[in-house]
Amino acid sequence: MTCLLVLVQAGASGTRSSADPIGTPTPGCTTEFRVAFVTDVAGLQSTGDADGWRGVGDALRDRPCTRARLIVPSRPSEYRNALRAGADAHDDLVIAASFLLTDAVVDAARANPGTRFVLVDPLVATPRLGNLAVLSFREDQAAYLAGALAGLLTRSGVVAGVYGPDGATDYVHRLGFEYGARYARPGVRVLGAYQPASEGAPYANPGWGAAQARAFIAQDADVIFGAGGTTGRGALEAATQAGTSCIGAEASDSSGCLLTTTVKFIDRGVRSTIVEAAAGDWSGGVAALGLAEGAVGLGPIRRSLRADMGRRLQQIADELAAGTLSTGL
Question: Where do the structural domains in the chain lie, given as residue ranges?
């Protein structure tokens, strides 16, 4: 049978479960391939966790003799217990769905070398362990495509990016965007700014993001790339108010200026990892998932591109996917 257990709540008093099995029992299953999917405390309210859980469903749908359960810890102190519960139950894969579980899943993998763990999209490097697969997404490739699109579309010859406070992800977003813009349009002027520490509220200062975008628009930038949480969304809103085009980094669809957004397909990464593990193909360490795996890219482009621009953007994407073009990161 294929079965998705819809909620297991892990708390200080133990593990309480409320399960709604999905699927049709299949006779003759002497063994099952079992997956435990552990979220952060936000559960499926977290977009990344929800995407990952969808990938679990996609991987196991119509696959006989499989079962998955969702574990939502009630507090961060329960992350380790929730992961250990998967190991104690002898689940075939225990998936830590959020970067917030990074320390907990590394500890769990070390303590349970016979259990295979997966960590989805961490923000920091992790030690290499044979029983821990780390799914890393090539955000540099998505940002490079965003920059290439901006370079192709700008009329003023000036594009700009507004970023969070110079963390690893912000660095990748900025350099990917800038390199992509310059590759698509040599000589383009690229402006950019990280959110200063003095502005406080890292990744959550839309006022600063909006002010920085307006400053770049005053310098003739006619495409704004807004990355870095609500700080970047503030830049998109300022671009909307100014009638300037914009590109978001995994942004919502609310900004009227939006040409497209960069996207990570976490569901595809989780799905492929489960399918491979179920087939006996397991490899610990970091898996860098990018355009070649269909794991990153741009969302739908909301403006009609000239045929030559569309071909050029597709050519750049194809070269990145094939490895004949590097983002420089």
Answer: 2-137+266-293, 140-263+299-322
Tell me the C-alpha distance between 142 and 163, whole Å: 15
Q: Indicate the SS3 state at residue 59.
A: helix
pLDDT at 35 > cutoff 50: yes
Q: What b/e readout covers 114-151, taking b as 16+ CB neighbours within 10 angstroms?
A: ebbbbbbbbeeebeebebbbbbbbbbbbbbbbbbbbbb
**Among 80, 71, 78, 74, which residue's Cα sits nearest to residue 34?**
71
Q: Which 3 state secondary structure label does DSSP give 74?
A: coil
pLDDT in tens, 253-292: 566 899 999 999 999 999 999 999 999 999 899 999 999 9
Q: For residues 184 and 147, is the Cβ–Cβ distance under 8 A?
A: yes
Q: How far apart are the first and last CA of the chain?
A: 44
Superfamily of domain 2-137+266-293 in CATH is Response regulator (3.40.50.2300)
Cα–Cα distance for residue pair 296/88, rounded to 1 Å: 34
Look up residue 11 and give its two tokens: 């708390």
